[in-house]
Design goal:
heterotrimer, A: alpha/beta, Amidase signature (AS) enzymes, eleven-stranded mixed beta sheet, 15 helices, globular, B: alpha+beta, Arc Repressor Mutant, subunit A, three-stranded antiparallel beta sheet, about 20% strand
């Protein structure tokens, strides 16, 4: 599979065409989608029209953008006008949004060709895609295993060479974890760097859109296109998109990197070995490695599993059968709403709505939600102290390699523990990237995680690039 | 107004919702407009479509600050919360509102009678949509199904919560009227209760003087100042009767039925909703800069109390009728006509009367009437060049067609002053025709002057000047021409 | 929070959240949610009286839009997505009580 950078260059210089690149992508989807269940919807017609338009504009000598003719997969919690958008939930089945997410407009303006919508855990709640109402996605590297989640479909699209890049969203690790399990680069940017307008909310103060790619360069390019202030998102950072691609090869000489005990302890041996090897690779690239302990991070999981459900319980109230989506009839409006929600939501979504409703309800707010917000403060302060000492932090992305279907799906707590290393950065709003480094059991990929202070994406990509080279992949 | 006996006292606190006069809604660019076709002023944000996000309207904040400043509130950094409850008129099934940190708090409102009512808070929130009920004669109860229009959903509101400082239905009415005047004066609201742009809920309880507050009931559906006053009276009596019979007042929400003149239970508070308030993570904190606050404060127009005082000061010992006329002038914001006329040397009482009657009756055309033309007309009336009736006709012409020359209008209408001779002859013939009345007038009964003025007006078709008639009568009484 | 979650708590929360749970689901959720809350005991046990809560990762303030009217959506498109519509409005079954 060509990288996105190569495709865009080829389309721009005429050695390939957007239509040809799209056809290659569609052929690959046709070949493997039945088996892997990656795409919930493929927009052959719209993508073909978009690709033809790009080729035509190029033939007229127009600049067709940094992602010219690059097929891209969108997680199915992003709105694209007129395209079925489900969040992998029965409650939204058949809904076609009358508007597009800001990042979808930006991707199209940059020449990218959205080919379709990818599977996810329902409403992005999960770590395996097993919570999708439309069946799980299989890991292209080993179809008996999960691709991770919640952005499992977007990760699998790239891992299966259906597209070179894709978009996911990360609330507690939903980009980084599937990136690790599928052998990809995946980044959760600084909260507010990428507009959330048109991203169907799970947990508004934690959700952030980010890129999947096979290479660090492609991930940087994609993030550069979608980042930057958006007046339609009040939580969007005020500044324009940072320059990222230009800094990918800046190297890490003279930087200090903290190896954080709480971000790998308890992981599988092979994972810990990969993290140590990554530290060694960074040392060889001129970094100083500092061993750190940040005990506050251990509290992240508890805080996350109260804050995210609390916000979700409110964000998901609007699925009531009145204005859009599915309705199940009832005697009166309350019965209708209850029947609609009971039939429309899956078990995990119900579990989290219940948990969040409980955490916000009278008499429990202070003990649960209120306390979680304070732990969030502790997390932010702890990270800030660490970044006063070092430039970046290093740890594992997941405790293990891709697991088998059913292995954790009957035990919510075991599934939640899978997010223990990724959650703290969501709480803090900081960026982090997962980059493949080393292999584990069955030769499955392992991801290591690099974490940085707010707005440190360029440096994170530079560090990821060092590891990409050291891992022998480029 | 009902007066309670046996030492009972009414305690009232009012919650007034006012829609703000912005162009667009509170969190999106849809038009804030009353009366559009259903569901034509809606977008992903106010319809709560998945993925949409709210962004706060700057002008709504400015109008909220104007209200707060006019009510002497403290303006403080504030936040937006979500009030979670399921209801079909609410597109997200939560309402974005301010909760523990409102933009305005701790103010007061002084009423014309000198009493002061505390303002606990005046916070921002979004309005809900409107439901129409099918079957069951259009009411919620008994309807088969309901239809929802989200045009109003997301319209900016400020909710002004008074302290429980109000002690009578009349005071409640005066508070609502004064507040309405303030809202209109600030430009924040049009104050139209009939269109629902100002809505009042009343919290009513009764107690024995100086006893702790009693259990309160919240009265909804108060669509006019008259309803407000009647509902409070009814509710207070209901509670007193209940208590005197040994019963207890249940905390509940009650509905005012204007036709039947009574309140009835809408919802009992025991099954209180659990709104699960929490900070809306889609919105950031609001902390208007001192500079912005100063600019808003500096641009704040004079409030009704100050404007009323300015008009009252133009008349020595105003009568009740004159005070009422002043209220009309203030309410309509027309006092610049009065001030212009007074500055030109006119009599304030005449000017106020003409504004409160003639101009107020033709507000549609008020833009046609320049203060200068109004002043000139009042001066003509005052000098006797025009009779009152003629002055009213000239004002009518000016309102309808505009123009700056009342003299020309008077001339064109043939409104020439009755010559002194002609007036004298008319008065003389009326004295002959009404010897009894003239006799009583000559004995000193001045009230009869009005009788003769009326007769003169009748026979001259209003062309005479009332003051000139009095002068003529007085002259004849004093024997200037004993014929 | 040492008190474990009770079945009636779960039932109350389900009503608030407009979800109907079967008896089996009530039992399952009571135990599963109880586990999560038990895990949260590590956090609940801390004395954080002096710590300010963070509702939002960065302290952005005063983000506004200008008071400018932008085009609304086409009503026919919107209503075509509605489960039920009539006379230009969204239709729902009868409403049993007034809004709070």
């Amino acid at each position: 599979m060509k990288s996105a950078q190569t495709i865009a260059n080829d389309v721009r210089d005429g050695s390939s065409s957007a239509v040809a690149e799209l056809q290659r992508s569609l052929a690959r989807i046709a070949e493997r989608n039945d088996e892997l269940n990656v795409f919930l919807y493929v927009d052959v017609e719209g993508a073909t029209a978009a690709a033809s338009a790009i080729d035509e504009r190029r033939s007229r000598g127009e600049d067709v953008g940094p992602l010219a003719g690059v097929p891209i997969a969108l997680k199915d919690n992003l709105c694209q006008i007129g395209i079925p958008t489900t969040c992998s939930s029965k409650i939204l089945e058949g809904w076609r949004p009358p508007y597009s997410a800001t990042i979808v407009d930006r991707l199209i303006a940059a020449g990218a060709v959205p080919v379709g919508k990818t599977n996810l855990d329902e409403f992005a709640m999960g770590s395996s895609t097993e919570n999708s109402a439309f069946g799980p996605t299989r890991n292209p590297l080993d179809p008996s295993r999960v691709p991770g989640g919640s952005s499992g479909g977007s990760a699998a699209a790239v891992a299966a060479d259906m597209t070179s890049i894709s978009i996911g969203s990360d609330t507690g690790g939903s980009i980084r974890q599937p990136a690790a399990l599928c052998g990809l680069v995946g980044m959760k940017p600084t909260y507010g760097l990428v507009s959330r307008y048109g991203l169907i909310a799970f947990s508004s103060s934690l959700d952030q859109i980010g890129p999947f790619a096979k290479t660090v360069g492609d991930a940087a390019l994609l993030l550069e296109v979608i980042a930057g202030h958006d007046p339609l998102d009040a939580t969007s950072l005020p500044e324009p998109a940072p320059s990222l691609v230009a800094h990918v090869n800046d190297g890490m000489a003279g930087k200090r990197v903290g190896l954080v005990r709480e971000l790998y302890e308890g992981a599988d041996e092979s994972v810990v070995a990969s993290v140590r090897a990554a530290a060694e690779a960074l040392r060889e690239a001129g970094c100083e490695i500092v061993e750190l302990s940040i005990p506050e991070l251990r509290l992240g999981l508890s805080a996350y599993y109260l804050i995210a459900p609390a916000e979700a319980s409110s964000n998901l109230a609007r699925y009531d059968g009145v204005r859009f989506g599915r309705r199940v009839d009832g005697e009166d409006v309350t019965a209708m709403m209850e029947a609609t929600r009971t039939a429309g939501f899956g078990a995990e979504v119900k579990r989290r709505i219940m948990l969040g409703t409980y955490a916000l309800s009278a008499g429990y707010y202070d003990a649960y939600y209120g306390q979680a917000l304070k732990v969030r403060t502790l997390t932010i302060q702890a990270f800030a102290r660490a970044y006063a000492q070092v430039d970046l932090l290093l740890g594992a992305t997941t405790p293990g390699v891709a697991f088998k279907f059913g292995e954790k799906s009957n035990d919510p707590m075991a599934m939640y523990l899978n997010d223990v290393f990724t959650i703290p950065t969501n709480l803090a709003g900081d960026p982090a990237v997962s980059v493949p480094f080393g292999r584990g059991e069955e030769n499955l990929p392992i991801g290591v995680q690099l974490l940085g202070p707010p707005r440190s994406e360029a440096q994170l990509f530079a560090a990821a690039r060092v590891l990409e080279i050291a891992d022998g992949r480029a | 107004m009902t007066t309670l006996t046996n030492g009972w006292e009414i305690v009232v606190g009012l919650e007034v919702h006012t829609e703000l006069l912005t162009h667009s809604k509170l969190f999106c660019g849809c038009e804030n407009h009353f009366g559009s076709e259903p569901n034509t002023n809606v977008c992903p944000v106010c319809l709560g479509l998945p993925g949409s996000l709210p962004v706060l309207n700057e002008q709504a904040v400015e109008l909220a600050m104007r209200i707060g400043m006019a009510l002497h509130c403290t303006i403080a950094p504030s936040t937006f919360h979500r009030k979670n409850y399921f209801y079909p008129d609410q597109s997200k099934d939560y309402q974005i509102s301010q909760y523990d940190l409102p933009i305005n708090s701790n103010g007061y409102l002084d009423l014309p009678d000198g009493s002061r009512v505390g303002i606990e808070r005046a916070h921002m929130e979004e309005d809900t949509g409107k439901t129409t009920h099918l079957g069951g004669s259009g009411r919620l109860a008994g309807a088969d199904r309901s239809l929802v229009d989200y045009n109003r959903c997301g319209v900016p509101l400020v909710e002004i919560v008074s302290a429980p400082d109000i002690r009578s239905s009349a005071q409640a009415r005066a508070y609502a009227a004064e507040l309405r005047g303030i809202l209109i004066a600030t430009g924040a609201s049009d104050g139209r209760m009939e269109e629902g742009s100002m809505r009042i809920d009343a919290n009513v309880s009764v107690r024995q003087a100086n006893a702790p507050y009693g259990t309160r009931c919240e009265i909804k559906n108060l669509n006019s100042l008259r309803s407000l006053q009647r509902a409070i009276d009814y509710e207070a009596l209901r509670q007193v009767e209940l208590l005197e019979e040994g019963g207890t007042v249940r905390q509940e929400t009650r509905h005012w039925d204007e036709d039947r003149g009574e309140t009835s239970t809408l919802r009992v508070k025991e099954d209180a909703e659990d709104y699960r308030y929490f900070r809306d993570p889609d919105l950031v904190d609001l902390a208007p800069s001192q500079q912005w606050q100063d600019a808003v404060r500096a641009a704040l127009p004079a409030m009704p109390a100050e404007r009323r005082a300015a008009l009252i000061a133009t008349i020595t010992q105003p009568s009740d009728a004159q005070r009422d006329a002043i209220e009309v002038v203030i309410d309509l914001g027309l006092e610049h006509y009065v001030h212009s006329a007074v500055a030109a040397g006119a009599d304030a009482a005449t000017a106020i009367s003409r504004v409160a009657n003639e101009i107020a009756a033709d507000l549609e055309h008020v833009a046609n009437l320049s203060p200068a033309a109004f002043s000139a007309t009042v001066l003509m009336e005052q000098s006797g060049a025009l009779s009152a009736t003629q002055a009213k006709t000239v004002l009518g012409e000016l309102l309808e067609h505009g123009g700056d020359n009342p003299q020309a209008i008077a001339a064109a209408k043939g409104f020439e002053q009755l010559s002194a001779d002609s007036l004298g002859a008319t008065v003389a013939s009326l004295i002959d025709a009404h010897p009894d009345e003239w006799g009583r007038y000559r004995e000193g009964d001045d009230k009869l002057a009005q009788f003769f003025i009326g007769q003169v007006m009748k026979s001259t078709k209003g062309q005479a000047n009332g003051k000139a008639v009095i002068a003529e009568l007085q002259a004849r009484r004093q024997g200037r021409s004993q014929d | 929070m040492s008190s474990p979650l009770q079945r009636e708590d779960v039932a109350r929360v389900a009503r608030l959240a407009r979800l109907t749970l079967t008896e089996a689901e009530l039992d399952l959720f009571t135990s599963q949610l109880g586990q999560v809350l038990e895990h949260a005991n590590d956090m609940s046990a801390l004395n954080l009286d002096d710590v300010e809560p963070t509702a939002h990762p960065f302290g952005l303030i005063n983000v506004f839009r200008r008071d400018v009217v932008r085009p609304s959506l086409d009503r026919d498109v919107l209503l075509s997505q509605a489960p039920d519509a009539e006379s230009g409005r969204f239709a729902v079954p009868r409403i049993l009580g007034e809004a709070p």
